[in-house]
């Protein structure tokens, strides 16, 4: 019987004795080789050992050593990200009255608000600064005071697209041959045209420009088949410019065309949940130091920043009405600050600087969706991302507690289980015990939360030795709370005055008086608005609309500020306003004569004579 070797194979060859060099090599390998596999030891070190600048305990942020914030703390910098924004391209394909049949189908799909609410301008420094604070393990932004994220409630309020319905699922990646077959079947192109387009994109994708050139000329007088082809092409162009804008910046995946096969079922998908999962994945990819570009629907991210940080970044539109998507409430603009200065501004943020529940005035038109409490996984095709409302309870008006450890998303090939989990979302929302109690004041958390958060998070992005001189001059000698409060008051007062100036001369005198009076109160430090952000107000158990006296000026409907019933006189150190001010003077008004006083010196106005030039 032939001898049996250690590996289980039989061999008739005689066993060869090892040489001396082979014996020495085996001894060295035994000394170097650990008892456990190497990858297990590395994972243990990542959990136990902290990172420079935090986190101290890496049980949550396991991949932080690859994060861009870790590189910045070590002295390596990254320029602002290049943004993929197609807001201007949507205007190149308009659905006028001659294409009303196409628009009717788009409106039934629930995607019509995307045509008008997309921002044409996106701020690279602002979005890059927030992207540096995104953590893939928790799918949240890690700020100095805690975690925040874009929720399903944010998507529904900002975009007004459906967040309930069937999940968008794909069984496997689309091949180029299958993409060509879809183009022929659903868009009516020829095999040659489809092959030429996918070959030019070098992937199962087509150019957005190709869709506009071939289908934007179809009108109501065309045949029914041509109108169906043009409707599918427009919907594919729409989602490629908005919800699923990838980093190619010019094309859209043909795989989404399968969703528009049956045009009567387009409105049955949870487009908002798919958009959120895609945005989560784009933010996760952009947290790697070597990545230089950010995709996804940037209007959603930018409007979310405007809503929750209005005093820092926003420029509201005074003509906005609450029946429209909240993305239209803001005038997008480029932040003039550099990326480094925005990092330092975010490092100084406090919980009182955040507007935690910005949609109070919007609830009459758009009630709070219960599916926003869903705790599980959301997906967009093969992209699966966890959704953790228990980590951002303050955004729902509840006291933030220490959340459980985040769960890793399952494999995309388990799409059937994820779809069933999502269809029974009512069984997977946070129970009342997990939601906790309502906040007594905005941004409230349990006492032990910040100690836990400081241990597992990276709260400060800009290292102290690399901060700009602006933060290390006389400002830093002041107490931190004094500097931040002064900055907040100045910014709010300037914003109010900017609203008055941008409104022109067609505004009433009461509007001017209300705005100037509130700006004076803010600068004097006696405004009730700032006090409501920093002191407990014992909010009721349900969402209630704040009164005009306690709401910020820029949050009033249509920005109409009612004249106060009684106005306290300003301090003696500030000159009071005149008794009556004409906002539209028809003729120049002479300066008032100074009051005679035995102690005050009389001012004499002398008209200077100009010497004529020879």
The fraction of residues assigned to DSSP E strands is under 5%
C-alpha end-to-end distance: 126 Å
What composes the largest sheet? 3 strands, antiparallel
Mean pLDDT: 79
Shape: globular
Strand order of the largest sheet: 2-3-4
The number of helical segments is 22
User: Helical proportion?
Assistant: 25-40%
Rg (C-alpha, Å): 30 Å
Instruction: Report low-confidence residues grouped into runs of 5 or more.
Output: 1-14, 25-48, 471-484, 526-609
Counting DSSP E segments of at least 2 residues, the number of strands comes to 9
Strand-pairing-aware structural class = mainly alpha
Task: Explain what the structure shows.
The protein has 614 residues and is mainly alpha-helical. The chain has 22 helices and nine strands. The strands form four sheets. The protein has a three-stranded antiparallel sheet with strand order 2-3-4, with no helix packed on it. Helix 7 crosses helix 12 and helix 8 (176-187) packs across helix 9 (191-201). It is globular and about 65 Å long.
List the helices and strands and how they pair.
Elements: H1 20-32, H2 38-48, H3 68-73, E1 82-83, H4 100-109, H5 113-117, H6 124-131, E2 134-135, E3 140-143, E4 146-148, H7 152-159, H8 176-187, H9 191-201, E5 205-207, H10 208-215, H11 224-241, E6 251-253, H12 271-286, E7 293-294, H13 298-308, H14 310-313, H15 339-347, E8 376-380, E9 383-387, H16 415-423, H17 432-435, H18 449-456, H19 474-477, H20 480-502, H21 509-524, H22 528-534
Parallel strand pairs: 1-7
Antiparallel strand pairs: 2-3, 3-4, 5-6, 8-9
Helix pairs in contact: 4-11, 6-15, 7-12, 8-9, 10-11, 20-21
